[in-house]
Write a structure and sequence with these properties.
Layout lengths: L5 E6 L2 H8 L9 E4 L6 E4 L1 H5 L13 H6 L1 E3 L3 H18 L3 E5 L2 E5 L6 H16 L3 E6 L2 H11 L6 E3 L18 H9 L5 H6 L2 H8 L1 H10 L16 E12 L2 H21 L2 E12 L12 E10 L2 H15 L6 E9 L2 E2 L13 H18 L40
Parallel strand pairs: 2-4, 7-8
Antiparallel strand pairs: 1-6, 1-7, 2-3, 5-6, 9-12, 10-11, 10-12, 10-13
Helix pairs in contact: 4-5, 9-10, 11-12
The protein binds a DNA duplex (18 and 18 nucleotides) through helix 7 and strand 9.
Length: about 425
DNA sequence: TCTGGGGTCCTAGGACCC
DNA sequence: TCTGGGGTCCTAGGACCC
């Protein structure tokens, strides 16, 4: 039986392209999208890349004269998520199977497709026309090969590449999916410089020296699939909400508000996915970029007696953890709340000693979620998060574009 | 002055058990 | 001189991904 080919469809410079769709003034100009807190460059248009702005580069390290030539935007994840959904809709129309891999990438199957290149080209055309986002498609026998093809396709006029064996010798090993900076250095020291070198390396030695992950990557480069499409999103094991603060925070009160805000948000996400958590995890961090200051990064987890998705229970635990680990005399820069050991919300673990009050509790959470969904996040809140007050620790977002596609009051105006 | 957030998987080592 | 062996669970840390 012929093994069906896989494709990887990926939005070019995705966040930067999203910014351009609704704002023609920035087309053709170098665009940089920043991480939360306006910290690092997390997306760059082709023009910004040409100016030497690197992925992940702190924006304050980009020389002033370069920065002045660029349009700089704060991350607008609500907009990008919405655009991502539109692209996936197009793909589901065209392909028999689709795996949404990340906000800007989907794997597709060419099962039963006579001419993969032709269909890939049509997908590109339709996505560009219907959403305004330019895409590339890589095609290969395995996910790793499709990823490589996608990378090769960037910058070609056709935007579609079907990977052939011979192409791997011109493909740098650092661009192989699953090979990061550390592995690139170690492999390079052994003379493994291209994907072709990696594919031909002795597999036993590779397995012994680098472990099973790289051994699988090698198999995939040789056309032997180790992973199939996952059309249903696998159940998450944990869920984390964490943020750097806009400025350093010292008081327990501010910290406590931040932790409450993250805990509330985490529970909202949990309920939106119909899950419950068996544990709560909290961590704090001082500013690692100021090694002269005293550093402290405590982390502590707490196991719950039974799984919950009730914000009040999680808040109670998170605040308890905070009190246990907070120390005076440190300037905190970041905190995170994690919900651990997640299970489906219909799983009820009986407990001999607690009353069964779950239905009532979940009802009030449902009401809160539906009000917030209808009237906007934060319409109904909890006092412990310093609800609605402008917090001392809030994030910097100085160049945020409008929520063009999610809010009536921010729709584009056409005169 | 200014440095992201949310995940997964694997490995090694220690504690503990029989 | 001269230690048992093997299994599980937990945690911490590393590496990678987008």
């Amino acid at each position: 039986m012929q093994i069906p080919l896989l494709g990887l469809v990926d939005g070019n410079n995705f966040y930067a392209s999203c910014e351009r769709v609704f704002d023609p003034r920035v087309r053709g100009k170098p665009v940089i999208v920043l991480s939360n807190n306006d910290g690092c460059a997390i997306a760059r248009s082709q023009e910004a890349k040409a100016l030497g702005v690197r992925m992940g580069q702190p924006i304050h390290e980009v020389p002033n004269d370069i920065r002045k030539q660029c349009v700089i935007r704060s991350a607008n994840f609500a907009l990008y998520g919405d655009m991502s959904g539109r692209i996936v809709e197009v793909l589901r129309d065209l392909f028999p199977r689709v795996e949404v891999y990340s906000i800007d990438e989907s794997f597709v199957s060419f099962e039963g497709v006579r001419d993969p290149i032709d269909l890939a080209t049509e997908a590109r055309r339709r996505i560009l026309q219907w959403t305004g986002i330019p895409c590339c498609v890589g095609i290969g026998a395995t996910k790793t090969l499709a990823k490589a093809g996608n990378k090769m396709a960037k910058g070609t006029p056709q935007g579609v590449v079907h990977v052939e064996r011979a192409m791997l010798d011109a493909f740098s090993v650092e661009d192989v999916w699953g090979v990061g900076r550390k592995l690139t250095a170690r492999l390079g020291a052994e003379g493994i410089l291209t994907a072709g070198d990696l594919a031909r390396a002795d597999s036993e030695t590779l397995r012994a020296r680098y472990g099973v992950v790289l051994a699988r990557t090698q198999m995939e480069l040789n056309g032997q699939a180790c992973a199939d499409l996952e059309e249903v999103e696998p159940q998450r094991q944990e869920l984390v909400v964490s943020r750097s603060f806009g400025r350093e925070v010292t008081s327990l009160e501010d910290l406590s508000q931040a932790v409450a805000t993250f805990a509330i948000r985490a529970c909202e996400k949990l309920r939106a996915r119909s899950l419950k958590a068996n544990g709560v995890w909290l961590w704090l961090n001082t500013n690692p970029f100021k090694p002269g200051q005293p550093q402290y990064h405590p982390s502590r987890a707490f196991n719950l007696i039974r799984p919950t998705s009730d914000t009040r229970e999680v808040l109670f635990v998170a605040q308890g953890l905070l009190k246990a680990m907070h120390k005076q005399g440190y300037a905190y820069k970041k905190a995170g709340v994690g919900l651990l050991d997640l299970v489906d919300s219909d799983v009820v673990q009986g407990d001999l000693f607690s009353p069964q009050d779950a239905p009532r509790a979940s009802k009030s959470m449902e009401v809160m979620d539906s009000i917030n969904q209808r009237f906007g996040r934060g319409t109904l809140g909890m006092a412990s998060s310093g609800w609605k007050a402008k917090p001392a620790w809030g994030m910097r977002q100085e160049n945020l574009s409008p929520a063009y596609t999610q809010r009536w009051d921010q729709l584009m105006r056409v005169r």
